[in-house]
């Protein structure tokens, strides 16, 4: 499906403050038609003008067809996305979004699900919890935030049928209620799947603790909102070449350009969205050469295979990469 074919026009039916620094947007179809279905863990690409496209998780009930609900944290280091949502988007505005996509789906064969949310990462995790509750599945939810005032949807969770399965952990609260990852993840069980979403530091801590405790990669599921320093240019980056397998054409990627930028300047377009190695939109097969992976989308095993990479931010360790383009 092309990007144009999957584009949707929606109206901001409601904008609300959910917590300190977090607002939500309720999006409905402009023509009143039912919106495409989605599953827990899905996100949509939201076009915010000026070429800015950001991914936001859907956090309403997947059974609802009349609306999508997203929540956005104001990021002091915003590259234009969160600032636009908080300052420019108003109730009644029309926006272009993509159809829902899901790179963070529930493993329905799981015997038990452990859901870990950090800050704004509660958006997909909450949707998962509500879906698992409807299914009658076994799960536990842990929600960590700096403070209660900065935690979105607390009342919604406390009023849910699964409230007894949810625990809150606030940085400014008593020591006894803080999240103890080492203890929580110490005993990985067969059939238990772990899902984590939130700020990169939180997610790195969760995933590194789980791997150190012996959790298998097939048990770990995550979704990053940004790539942090991984995707940033680095001192010492050097030029390299990419070759297009279809034509044999060779294009040089300068130290200050990304692969997608160099390709675009040469008239070769690759579909991109986040441009940080988060969403996987630009994922491209590598036929020869060794990538320098700087994404947070691929698993460690997928990166080690070196047969695909994200040209929006990743580079090359070898002098040339041959791409399936």
Automatic annotation (TrEMBL):
Enzyme class: oxidoreductase
Residue intervals of the 2Fe-2S ferredoxin-type domain: 240-325
Superkingdom of source: Bacteria
EC number(s) stated in the UniProt entry for this protein: 1.-.-.-
FAD-binding FR-type domain sequence ranges: 5-107
Gene Ontology molecular function terms on file: oxidoreductase activity
Cofactor(s) listed: FMN
Pfam families in UniProt: DmmA-like_N, Fer2
Gene3D superfamilies listed in its UniProt record: 3.10.20.30, Nucleotide-binding domain of ferredoxin-NADP reductase (FNR) module (3.40.50.80), Translation factors (2.40.30.10)
InterPro entries reported for this sequence: 2Fe-2S_ferredoxin-like_sf, 2Fe-2S_ferredoxin-type, 2Fe2S_fd_BS, Beta-grasp_dom_sf, DmmA-like_N, FAD-bd_FR_type, FNR_nucleotide-bd, MRET
The entry's keywords: 2Fe-2S, Flavoprotein, FMN, Iron, Iron-sulfur, Metal-binding, Oxidoreductase
Protein name as catalogued: PDR/VanB family oxidoreductase
Source organism of this protein record: Azohydromonas lata
């Amino acid at each position: 499906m092309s990007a144009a074919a999957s584009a949707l026009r929606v109206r901001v039916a409601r904008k609300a403050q959910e917590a300190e620094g977090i607002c939500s947007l309720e999006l409905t179809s402009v023509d009143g038609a039912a919106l495409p279905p989605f599953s827990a863990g899905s996100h949509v690409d939201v076009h915010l003008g000026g070429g800015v496209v950001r991914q936001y998780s859907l956090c309403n009930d997947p059974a609802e067809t009349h609306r999508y609900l997203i929540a956005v944290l104001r990021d002091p280091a915003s590259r234009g996305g969160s600032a636009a949502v908080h300052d420019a988007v108003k109730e009644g505005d029309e926006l272009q979004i993509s159809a829902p996509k899901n790179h963070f789906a529930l493993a329905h064969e799981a015997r038990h699900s452990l859901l870990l949310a950090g800050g704004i990462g509660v958006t997909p995790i909450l949707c998962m919890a509500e879906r698992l509750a409807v299914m009658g599945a076994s799960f536990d939810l842990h929600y960590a935030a700096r403070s209660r005032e900065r935690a979105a949807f607390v009342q919604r969770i406390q009023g849910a049928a699964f409230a007894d399965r949810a625990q809150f952990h606030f940085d400014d609260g008593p020591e006894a209620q803080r999240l103890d990852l080492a203890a929580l993840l110490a005993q990985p069980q067969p059939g238990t799947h772990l899902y984590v979403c939130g700020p990169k530091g939180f997610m790195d801590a969760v995933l590194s603790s789980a791997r150190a405790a012996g959790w298998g990669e097939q048990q770990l599921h995550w979704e990053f909102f940004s790539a942090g320093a991984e995707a940033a240019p680095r001192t010492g980056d050097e030029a390299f070449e990419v070759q297009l397998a279809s034509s044999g054409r060779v294009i040089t990627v300068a130290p200050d350009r990304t692969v997608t930028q160099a390709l675009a300047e040469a008239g070769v377009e690759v579909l991109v969205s986040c441009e940080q190695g988060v969403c996987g939109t630009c994922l491209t097969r590598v036929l020869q050469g060794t990538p320098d992976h700087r994404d947070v989308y691929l698993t460690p095993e997928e990166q080690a295979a070196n047969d695909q990479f994200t040209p929006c931010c990743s580079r090359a360790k070898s002098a040339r990469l041959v791409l399936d383009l």
